[in-house]
Automatic annotation (TrEMBL):
This is hydroxymethylglutaryl-CoA lyase. InterPro entries: Aldolase_TIM, HMG_CoA_lyase_AS, HMGL, PYR_CT. It comes from Cupriavidus gilardii J11. Pathway: Metabolic intermediate metabolism; (S)-3-hydroxy-3-methylglutaryl-CoA degradation; acetoacetate from (S)-3-hydroxy-3-methylglutaryl-CoA: step 1/1. Residues 7-274 form the Pyruvate carboxyltransferase domain. Its EC number is 4.1.3.4. One of its GO terms (biological process) is L-leucine catabolic process. PROSITE patterns: HMG_COA_LYASE, PYR_CT. Belongs to the HMG-CoA lyase family. Keywords: Lyase, Metal-binding. The keyword Metal-binding applies. It is an enzyme of class 4 (lyase). It catalyses: (3S)-3-hydroxy-3-methylglutaryl-CoA = acetoacetate + acetyl-CoA.
């Protein structure tokens, strides 16, 4: 099987993970989480959203979070920006990368950002142009690339079409997102190949939610066709507020364990990510959804217990 020597992991827990929490997570906790992730060595962390607080109240404190995190040179701190208002907030907050987020399904586009796919592209145009002018990176995210909670099947051609439009806006990177985690490996490869016919393979990423337990397999399948960037969420936090029943992204700890076990470098310290996952799970009172995180925490607790007995 083909795999690269190095894979870039984009940690999306502070944004995709926490956005779905009903109870407001205090900014102190969000900042502490991002700082722990920074310390673990990520080169890209999705730290906040500059979206309408009426739509996603949990992300309303993005400016405060961005102002208080300890930035590490070499790490890009990305934020979601659906429109110019969001972009202005992102610039004021000193974001290194803005994420414009559309969908390959019309129904989801309406539910998530209240406009059609074509309208969303028109809305993203000034955002991408302004970002380019200011030297800020632009990433395009395409929801429902493997299926839609409202319309079901999403044709591969519809994904390729949005990839092309995002490319024409000047995106530096494009995310193929499986919002509801329904994709399976062969289909994922088909979608990735179609996306790569419109955009550079080494700047495409896989953003897999793990609702159906397919995410690690889908990452392996993507590696095999040359994808080198994956998104993951510490402790498997999250879900999408506009996709009922969708669970979090694949847990970062599980992805790191698999990649490191294959000899693929990430530059990230797995143990520190496990500690960060334990921290956030306890802070928000949620079970830790990383299998690797739970296994290592249990192992460490038993070794510490054994050491205490000596
Ligand atoms: P709208 O209601 O059509 O827009 O929402 P609007 O322009 O009429 O604005 C409504 C109100 O929001 C106004 O306030 C605006 O000022 C304000 P009012 O005048 O009523 O007091 N507003 C804003 N405030 C702060 N920042 C802004 C902003 N924009 C407007 N940027 C809109 C359209 C796009 C704004 C809305 O639908 C929205 O914010 N949607 C965001 C939804 C979202 O964040 N979803 C989750 C993230 S996407 C995701 O998770 C998928 C992903 O992970 C990939 C995958 O897994 O699929 C990326
Ligand atoms: Mg997502």
């Amino acid at each position: 099987m083909n795999h690269p020597n190095y894979v870039k992991i984009v940690e999306v827990g502070p944004r995709d993970g926490l956005q779905n929490e009903k109870a407001m997570v205090p900014a102190d906790i969000k900042v502490a989480l991002v700082d722990r992730l920074t310390e673990a060595g990520f080169v890209n962390i999705e730290a906040a959203s500059f979206v309408s607080p009426k739509w996603v109240p949990q992300m309303a404190d993005g400016a405060e979070v961005m102002a208080r995190i300890q930035r590490r040179p070499g790490t890009l701190y990305s934020v979601l920006t659906p429109n110019m208002k969001g972009f202005e907030g992102a610039v004021a907050a000193g974001a290194d990368e803005v994420v414009i987020f559309g969908a390959a399904s019309e129904a989801f586009s309406q539910k998530n950002i209240n406009c059609s796919i074509a309208e969303s592209i028109a809305r993203f145009e000034p955002v991408a142009a302004a970002a380019k002018e200011k030297g800020i990176r632009v990433r395009g995210s395409i929801s429902c690339s493997l299926g839609c909670p409202y319309q079901g099947e999403v044709p591969v051609a519809a994904v390729a079409d949005v990839v092309r439009r995002m490319r024409d806006l000047g995106c530096d990177e494009i995310d193929i997102a499986d919002t509801i985690g329904v994709g399976t490996p062969v289909r994922v490869q088909e979608v990735m190949r179609a996306a790569a016919s419109e955009f550079a393979l080494d700047r495409l990423s896989g953003h897999f939610h793990d609702t159906y337990g397919q995410a690690l397999s889908n990452i392996l399948a993507s590696l095999d066709v040359g994808i080198q960037i994956f998104h993951a969420s510490v402790a498997g936090l999250g879900g999408c507020p506009y996709a009922k029943g969708a669970t979090g992204n694949v847990a970062t700890e599980d992805v790191l364990y698999m990649l490191h076990g294959m000899g693929v470098r990430t530059g990230i310290d797995l143990d520190l990510v496990v500690r960060a996952g334990d921290f956030i799970s306890q802070a928000i009172g949620r079970p830790n959804n990383s299998r690797v995180g739970r296994a290592l925490l249990t192992k460490w607790a038993s070794t510490e217990g054994a050491a205490a007995c000596v």
